[in-house]
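Message: I would love a firmer grasp of how sequence relates to backbone shape in proteins. Thank you; the sequence and its tokens follow:
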Amino acid sequence: MHIGSYDDEPATVAMMHEFMEQQGYELDITDKRLHHEIYLSDARKVAPEKLKTVIRHPIKEKGS
């Protein structure tokens, strides 16, 4: 879950990737397995620092 401005999402994604690698996983983004973002807040009504976004990246065990 990313909380804050959309401009700050790259830092959250970097933390996700670091944790994923520490746990023995790697990205599994393909033509059929894509990155998803689910916007839980309405950017027209919520302050940027309070926006909530679910960021989902497909992963797989390293070497799979």
About this structure: Strands lie at 2-3, 25-27, 36-39, 52-56, 59-61. Helices lie at 9-22. The two ends are 26 Å apart (CA to CA).
